[in-house]
RNA sequence: CGGGCCGUCGUAUACCGGUAGUACGCCUGCUUUGGGAGCAGGUAGAACUGGUUCGAUUCCAGUCGGCCCGACCA
């Protein structure tokens, strides 16, 4: 990608009304654009990051045997009346009447429509277990959007739903997904803590995945080594029942990047999702749901990985692997760009004629690709300056070595 | 939804009851190129409505909008 062709440009200063680091840096770098409170456009650079996050999620979800589908955003009232949640959700769900007079809503979660859908495809114990997921936009009329892209009214969610004939199957898959979640966050570069939370519907507890950060809106209690972590909802009841480990627990703010939840038969019973068991009896399907917010994960990565000059993306989710600063504009950078591209490395080539060296370096720091390569008049023929964004000394190496190092 | 702060060119800011200025951006020309270049010229702005006033961008009220704290967040 040539920087001269990029749709967006960077801003020298952040909008004065944004205080969250993720909003300030993502806006300055041209990753996102705020339309209104809690509603952000993802610009080309932002989409590249999101797509890398989503690819990781898909790989790990597919590895559990789950299959991707794509639900509708428009939902009808009848589905929601089956569980009584049409009225119950009226504060959070965008509801309206369409031109034909039908009560319609925008999806803020998909348990009801997904359960209804599953009735068409699950009717026997032989059809179980099954798991499907989507990466979809969700709408929630949040009373207070906040913290840049961390809490919006329109946001992406990966939601996975699993269907089981018995609890043993449910518990086994639930644990499998918990492990997949830890793997996903690790690959994204987020040190997520599996956190005991209130169970709500079916089981005593659910699991949240929390990343320590001061901008987080959750409070968690944990041992120093994080071998035990619980959220504020269950802290008191664990304390009363002696469920806490010995010793002093720390209290920290954290961002919830994922949540997994056993639903039991709440939705299957309400919507008539049953299966016929071996003995011929009709039983409700046992369900669980599992969510990750890819946009929130992206914002969390920025919160954890930046300095005063800009973002420092982990290689796994960086918009480009390499930011190639071309100060010489004599064809050498272009040859390097071609070589790197052919070897499978994503390169953002700053080929601008009218930008100063300082501006190019500043933009490279701001956009935050993990490696900056510089070709300038000072650079010897056949050499290139290699500078990791995360810090450390710049080194001048042969272009061939740079290509080899980056293609690994 | 309660509380607080705030709305001035695209962005960041200044000033002022009477003419809206600066920097960056953007456009033109020339000169520049290893840490946000220089010169010259140009472009573009007071959220909306009402009130006070001879006169309001400025003061007052309402509306709309943004941020922060809290409540809320299957």
Structural write-up:
The protein is an alpha+beta fold and 408 residues long. It has 12 helices and 23 strands. The strands form 6 sheets. Strands 3, 7, 8, 9, 10, 11, 12, 13 and 16 form a 9-stranded mixed β-sheet that branches. It has a 5-stranded mixed β-sheet with strand order 20-19-21-22-23, with helices on both faces. Strands 4-6-5 form a 3-stranded antiparallel β-sheet. Helix 1 crosses helix 9 (294-304), helix 2 (44-63) runs antiparallel to helix 6 (167-188) and helix 2 (44-63) packs across helix 9. It binds one RNA strand of 74 nucleotides through strand 13 and helix 11.
How would you summarize the topology of this molecule?
Blueprint: H1 21-29, E1 32-36, E2 39-42, H2 44-63, E3 67-68, E4 74-76, H3 77-81, H4 85-88, E5 95-97, E6 103-106, H5 111-118, E7 130-139, E8 154-164, H6 167-188, E9 193-198, E10 205-212, E11 218-222, E12 229-231, H7 232-240, E13 250-264, H8 266-271, E14 274-276, E15 282-284, E16 286-292, H9 294-304, E17 306-307, E18 310-311, E19 322-326, H10 332-342, E20 347-350, H11 357-367, E21 371-375, E22 383-388, E23 395-398, H12 399-407
Parallel strand pairs: 3-7, 19-20, 19-21
Antiparallel strand pairs: 1-2, 4-6, 5-6, 7-8, 8-16, 9-10, 10-13, 11-12, 11-13, 13-16, 14-15, 17-18, 21-22, 22-23
Helix pairs in contact: 1-9, 2-6, 2-9
The chain binds one RNA strand of 74 nucleotides through strand 13 and helix 11.
């Amino acid at each position: 990608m040539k920087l001269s062709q990029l749709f967006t440009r960077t801003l020298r200063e952040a909008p004065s009304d944004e205080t969250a680091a993720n909003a300030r840096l993502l806006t300055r770098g041209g990753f996102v654009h705020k339309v209104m409170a809690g509603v952000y456009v993802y610009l080309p650079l932002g989409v590249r990051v999101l797509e890398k996050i989503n690819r990781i999620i898909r790989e790990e979800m597919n590895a559990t045997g789950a299959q991707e589908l794509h639900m509708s955003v428009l939902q009808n009232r009848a589905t929601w009346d089956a569980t009584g949640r049409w009225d119950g959700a009226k504060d959070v769900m965008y509801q309206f009447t369409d031109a034909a007079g039908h009560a319609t809503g925008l999806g803020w979660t998909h348990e009801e429509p997904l359960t209804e859908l599953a009735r068409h495809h699950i009717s026997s114990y032989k059809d179980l277990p099954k798991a499907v997921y989507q990466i979809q936009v969700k709408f929630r009329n949040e009373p207070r959007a906040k913290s840049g892209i961390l809490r919006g009214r329109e946001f992406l969610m990966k939601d996975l739903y699993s269907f089981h004939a018995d609890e043993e199957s449910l518990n086994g898959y639930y644990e499998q997904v918990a492990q997949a979640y830890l793997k996903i966050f690790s690959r994204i570069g987020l040190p997520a803590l599996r956190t005991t939370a209130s169970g709500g519907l079916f089981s005593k507890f659910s699991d949240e995945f929390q990343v320590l950060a001061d901008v987080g809106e959750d409070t968690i209690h944990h041992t120093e080594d994080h071998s035990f972590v619980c959220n504020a909802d269950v802290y008191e009841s664990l304390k009363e029942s002696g469920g806490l480990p010995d010793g002093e627990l720390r209290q920290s703010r954290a961002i919830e990047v994922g949540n997994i939840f056993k639903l039991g038969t709440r939705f299957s019973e309400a919507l008539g999702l049953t299966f016929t068991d071996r003995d011929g009896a009709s039983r409700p399907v046992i369900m669980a749901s599992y969510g990750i917010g890819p946009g929130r994960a992206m914002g969390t990565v920025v919160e954890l990985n930046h300095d005063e000059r800009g973002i420092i993306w982990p290689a796994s989710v960086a918009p480009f692997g390499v930011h190639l600063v071309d100060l010489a504009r004599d064809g050498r950078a272009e040859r390097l760009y071609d070589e790197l591209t052919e070897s499978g490395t994503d390169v953002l080539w700053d080929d601008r004629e009218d930008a100063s060296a300082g501006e190019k370096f500043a933009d490279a720091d701001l956009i935050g690709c993990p490696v900056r390569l510089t070709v300038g008049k000072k650079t010897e023929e056949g050499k290139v300056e290699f500078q990791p964004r995360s810090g450390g000394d710049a080194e001048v190496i042969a272009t061939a070595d740079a290509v080899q190092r980056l293609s690994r």
